[in-house]
Amino acid sequence: MTRPTRLLAAVSAFALGLATVSFAAEPPKATPPGPAPTDPGMPGDTAAPDPMPGDEAQPIDPRVPGAAPLLTEAVSTPDYVNGAALGDLYEIEAAKIAVARSKNPQIVAFAQMMETDHMASSAKLGPVAITAGVTPPTTLDTTHQAKLDELNAAADANFDKLYIDQQVMAHDAALTLHRTYAASGADTGLKAVAAELVPKIEAHAEQAKLLKDAMDGTASN
After folding, report:
1. CA 207 distance to own-chain centroid
2. Is 50 exposed, middle or buried (CB count within 10 Å of its CB: 0-12, 13-18, 19+)?
3. Can you list the positions of beta strands (E) in the chain?
4. Most CB atoms closer than 10 Å: which of 116, 131, 134, 139?
5. How confident is the model at residue 3 (pLDDT cuts 50, 70, 90)?
6. Which of helix, strand or coil describes residue 102?
7. 91, 148 Cβ separation under 8 angstroms
8. What is the pLDDT of residues 183-207, one digit of tens each?
C-alpha cells in the first residue's frame, strides 16, 4: 500500500471511530453555572500542530535522471553504487553518440570530457564498491537505455539540444546522489569516493547549464 493510500485509510478509520463514539456516548450531564473550562486543543491554541505524514521535503530521486520525487531518505550503499555506476555508463555512451553526431565544437568538446571523466570515475568507484561487497552493474537499465535511444532517434537539428537537456538533468541527479552519500553513506571508502567526485560533477553540471543557456538564447533569437 502506498503512503497516500495508508494515510487515507488511517484518516477514514479515525473518522469512523469518531462517528461510533458519538452515537454510543451518553447524553452530556448538566454542569453547574460558571466559566467554561479552557480546552487546550481548541482553536487559538498557540502550540504548532504535528506535521502530517507526507509533509516531508521531497527531493528528486538521485538514482534516475528525470525521475519522480521521493520522500527524503538516506541512500543505501547498493543504491549508491548502482546509481553511480549506471550514471557513468550512460554518460560514456551518450558522449560517444554526441561526438559522432554533433556539428557543434563546444558540444563535441564537452562530450569528449564526459567520456574521459566518467571512465575515470567508473574506474575509481569499481574497486571500492567491490571491497564494500557490492558489484557495480556493467550494462544499462531500461531507463538509461531509453535516454540513449532518444539520442539515436533525434533529428540532426534537434540533437544538440536534446543531448544538453539530458546532461543537465543527469548531472543534477548525480549531484544529489553523490552529495547525499558523501554526507550520510554507510561505507567509509565509498563516502570518500563520493566526496571526491562531487566537485567534478559540480563543474560538469555548471558547464552543461551554460551550454543549455547559450543554446536556448540562440533558439529564441
Report:
1. 20
2. exposed
3. none
4. 134
5. very low
6. coil
7. no
8. 999 999 999 999 999 999 999 999 9
**CB–CB of 57/72 below 8 Å?**
yes
Instruction: Provide the greatest CA pair distance for the chain.
Output: 89
Domains (range + CATH), the chain: 77-220 (1.20.1260.10)
User: For cell 561505507, what's the residue?
Assistant: 187
Contact (Cβ atoms closer than 8 angstroms) between residue 178 and residue 194: yes
> How far apart are alpha carbons 213 and 220 in whole angstroms?
11
Amino acid (1-letter code) at residue 124: K
Q: What is the grid cell recorded at 66?
A: 528525470
User: How far is Cα 162 from Cα 33, in angstroms, rounded to an integer?
Assistant: 76
Contact of 184 with 74, CB cutoff 8 Å: yes
Torsion of CA 102, 105, 108, 110, to 10 degrees: -130
pTM above 0.70, yes or no: no
Amino acid at 84: A
Contact of 88 with 118, CB cutoff 8 Å? yes
